[in-house]
Amino acid sequence: MMLMFWIFALTDLFVAGIFYAVYGGKRKYAEGMLLGVHIPQSAADSEEVKVFMERYRKNTKRFYLWNGLAGIVVCFLNFWYLSVFMIVWCVWLVEFCAGAVYLLCRTHRKLYDLKVERGWVGSAGSRIMAVDTKVAAQNGKMGLSPWWHLLFLALILISFLDPGVRRYLQTSDDGWTFPLIGILVCVGFGILHFIIMRTRNRIYSEDSELNVAVNRMQKTLWSWAMVVSSLTNAAAYLVVASYIGNHNWLNNTTYAIYIVLQTLPGVWMIGSFLYMRYKKEKMLEKNEEPLYIDDDVYWKNGWYYNPSDKRFFVQDWACSWNYTTNMAKTGAKIFTGAAGVLTVGCLIWICVLMWKIDFTPIELTQRDGYVQITSGYSDLTISSDEIESVEVLDSVPEDRYNRINGSDDSRQLLGKFKGRETGKCRMYLYVGYEPILAIQTEKYGPVYVNSKSPGEVEEWCEKITQMME
Amino acid sequence: MVLKIDMSGAIPIYVQIRNEIVKGIGKGDVSAGENLPTVRQLASELGINTMTVSKAYQLLKSEGFIETDRRKGAVVKGTHELKGSLEGLYREKLEGELELLSAEAKLRGLDKQEFIDLCASAFAGMEV
């Protein structure tokens, strides 16, 4: 529980920090824009805009401070019921994400309205698109090729040639998780790499050489970030595959190496992004003929709406390494709506699942030649033919158990488990309660069940024994 | 060379692309032998249909400003190849456009010297 508390508390602070860096800290006039609105430097320096931005700074500070604190406070619920904590945490997360985006978009719109009202440059609604022919002509020659990901995919697939790996995949319930994650992440990075390489280049200057240099630097760094991330993902899987190939088991050290290697892409990506930003600023300091294309009319509500642009994904104004959809397209509306519904649906589904795990009691009933075990995670029905033996134990056999699915907290052990020596089993157990009923089956392995009511386990054992006779 | 296209303007986009490229060649922003983006690349950058860019490139090719090569894509032609083509149809076209511009300038109150100065300034900007 303490570990869980720290994981979530640090995650919340990390999320709040990233949101602040991406959405909360856009208060400086750069590249001819303030808060994503193109205005002249003189307007940005005016008293009116300074007061406006000061008010925004205070609101932002207040929002992030209170939400950061709330993010830590909700983590204390973890010491009570996990399901209650998850529900409150999900509500906090949705409120925080929606609030941060709303705060930014509302302020952006207000500044855009002010620009139109004051008649600052571009306020008539410029619909100019610009392209540097030199940059566009070299687009295909920038950065590493996305085909590199095929090599890493092949490395993952080649591990299936090892008989040890194949045996583990066939016999273990969770065996496919690692290669599946490896393949999906590799394909994901490949697709993202391909999209980034095809993304429209940005024009910063009338000087084509500078435009080429900045776009080349960005695409080269992005492509390296994608390729190295894909490489560490493949390496993480190969470490696991090599161990399970030799031992038909996964130890904690291999798990730890896997987690570290899978975390590296995140660190690498953030590092690349920060370096890219620094490098871009340095390069643009030499920009003697800046060129600002005012496309604010398409972004006035905070999202992109341009019916004459046939692109589906466009670079986001608030975060240059993020992509958003062109809401003028029906497909984009469906995609965004579906993504929102899917996200909220997943959160609700997780909350319901956890609520059931916490508040559904473990019960065993026996009728018509069947034993049925119900719990908050899953139910299990065993026919009397499948039962080999039944006995009452003081505790589960000594072994190192890994949870394959279900739940494993300080109150209950529910679902499929795998013991290093004893192999697969099912557990429907309240932690700290004895005795334990062990139903031996060939299909499921041993099934362990217990009860909070004294004498109930012995009663179950007696009834099942009678049923078997 | 930076092409600026007004997506909501009255002039068709392919004509704007053609005009911007001709201006770029005239100003020396793109030199003879330099590659232009492929039809697909330019369409992707502008977020427009490939047919629109293709139409602009065909127009430029027919007017002798660019040549297309299967391997190199669109390449800007040398200006010396264009210089002999002043006579005939082009002269007629130039006279017609100048007549229209002069009429509009006069109607809007520009005097002859101002008009000539503007023409001279625009012409001086052409570095080829």
Automatic annotation (TrEMBL), chain B:
Residues 11-79 form the HTH gntR-type domain. CDD domains: WHTH_GntR. Keywords: DNA-binding, Transcription, Transcription regulation. GO terms for molecular function: DNA binding; DNA-binding transcription factor activity. Signal peptide: none annotated. This is GntR family transcriptional regulator.
